[in-house]
Each structure stands twice: as C-alpha cells, then as structure tokens.
Amino acid sequence: DTEVTQTPKHLVMGMTNKKSLKCEQHMGHRAMYWYKQKAKKPPELMFVYSYEKLSINESVPSRFSPECPNSSLLNLHLHALQPEDSALYLCASSQDLLGDFPYEQYFGPGTRLTVT
Amino acid sequence: GQNIDQPTEMTATEGAIVQINCTYQTSGFNGLFWYQQHAGEAPTFLSYNVLDGLEEKGRFSSFLSRSKGYSYLLLKELQMKDSASYLCAVLTGTASKLTFGTGTRLQVTL
C-alpha cells in the first residue's frame, strides 16, 4: 500500500469558519508534510513532522495549525482564513527525514480549499 | 535563499525525445528530485539524483552536475500521456526541506 489519503477532496469555508483537513498513510512512514499549491505554481512547503514532532514550520501564519496525533495521521486545522488562502493543500509522507539517504515522498491527492 | 529555474513551457512530438532543464542555486544541497504532475492531480515521483551523473529509469533519465547547479530530465519515446507539468525539486538540510522549481508544462502533440 503506497497510498496517502486526504479528506475532504473539496472544502468551501467562510472566513469565520473553523475546519480541519485530514491526511492518513499506512506505510509506516515517520515523516509527514503539508504543502500549499496555488494554480499553475509549484507546491510550497508549510510544515514537516518527524516522529510526530514538528521539525519545520515555514513561517506559516497561525491561522494554520498542524497536528500529528499519531504516526499515521496528520491534520491541518484552519481558522479565520483569508480568500488568498484558497489553494490545493497537499499532504506527503516519507519513510524518514532525509539525511544520508533520500527517501521518496509520496503525495496525497490534495484538498482543494476555497475561502469565501 | 533558494533559486530554482525551469523553462515554463515546452512542446514536443509523440515518439520524440525531450530534455527539460533545471538550474538551481541553493545552500546545503542534499539531492534533486524530479516529479510529474498532471493537471488537478498530486505530484508523482520520477527520479532522484544525489551524485553527479545520469540515472536511468525506463523511458526517463535524469542527470545532475552539482558543480554547475544543473540537472535535466530526459524523456524518450514520448507518449500523449506524458503531457503534464514536470517539477524539479531540490532537497536541502537534514529535515527534508524540498523546494520546488517553477515547473515545466510539457505538451505532447501528434
């Protein structure tokens, strides 16, 4: 099983709403990632978790709050978003953080978020 | 900072060979990945280079020159399904920071 699943596929939310994106993998990977991708742009790294601990936060605004409740799950909690936060949010996982050996990152299908 | 450049768009004919270039200026280089992304879908892994030279995987090959900050992806025997965006991504640091290039949109025509 080399699948990363994400729910929901699509999400429309108002600027005052609170919602969560979910990501799950059952490959035994210990590193998980959130990326944001705007239309016709490359993915941009937001957060990296390793062994359920946050290891990279790319200066993401606090209205995005990641959570890694266990090694298989990664959540992204959303609150008071702006219309410019509308994008495709991609989750990825890899066997471990890259050190001496580059592990392949597997991407999920993404959640397309629209903030109104 | 990181600077990773690719041509924006390329067009090639079915059955032909196409080379997509990527130049980068980064700190703490740990390797370079190539990903394919079809419109509306997630990126999928194509290849990885950490040492200089050519890596071949079927119809796809990738080359790296670390001294020149340069890589290319070579696609042979092009098929219509190869029409997609191709993303060069550089790995830096020990915490798996992957920075993607601007991406190259490839159109394969008959």
Describe this structure in words.
- The complex is a heterodimer of chains A (116) and B (110).
- The model of chain A has no long low-confidence stretch (mean pLDDT 92).
- Helix content of chain A is 0%, strand content 55%.
- Chain A is globular, with a radius of gyration of 14 Å.
- Chain A is mainly β.
- Helices cover 0% and strands 61% of the residues of chain B.
- Chain B has strands at residues 3-5, 9-13, 18-25, 29-37, 44-49, 53-57, 60-65, 70-75, 84-92, 97-100, 104-109.
- In chain B, strand 9 and strand 10 form a beta hairpin.
- The relative contact order of chain B is 0.35.
**Cα-atom Rg of chain B, whole angstroms?**
13 Å
Which secondary-structure class do the elements of chain A indicate? mainly beta
| Biggest sheet layout of chain B | 6 strands, mixed
Residue windows where pLDDT falls under 50 for at least 5 positions of chain A: none
Mean pLDDT of chain B: 92
What overall form of chain A do the CA principal axes indicate?
Answer: globular
The helix tally of chain B amounts to 0
Order of helices and strands of chain B: EEEEEEEEEEE
Number of strands of chain A: 11
User: Which H/E pattern describes the elements of chain A?
Assistant: EEEEEEEEEEE
Characterize the quaternary organization of these chains. heterodimer
N-end to C-end Cα span of chain A: 36 Å
Total beta strand runs of chain B? 11
Q: How big a fraction of the residues of chain B is strand?
A: over 45%
Distance between the termini of chain B: 41 Å
Total of DSSP H or I helical runs spanning 4+ residues of chain A:
0
Mean pLDDT of chain A: 92
Biggest interface and its residues per chain?
Answer: A-B, 25 and 23 residues
> How much helical structure, as a percent, in the residues of chain A?
under 10%
Write the layout of secondary structure elements.
The complex is a heterodimer of chains A (116) and B (110).
Chain A: E1 4-7, E2 10-13, E3 18-25, E4 31-37, E5 44-50, E6 53-57, E7 64-70, E8 73-79, E9 87-94, E10 106-107, E11 111-115
Chain B: E1 3-5, E2 9-13, E3 18-25, E4 29-37, E5 44-49, E6 53-57, E7 60-65, E8 70-75, E9 84-92, E10 97-100, E11 104-109
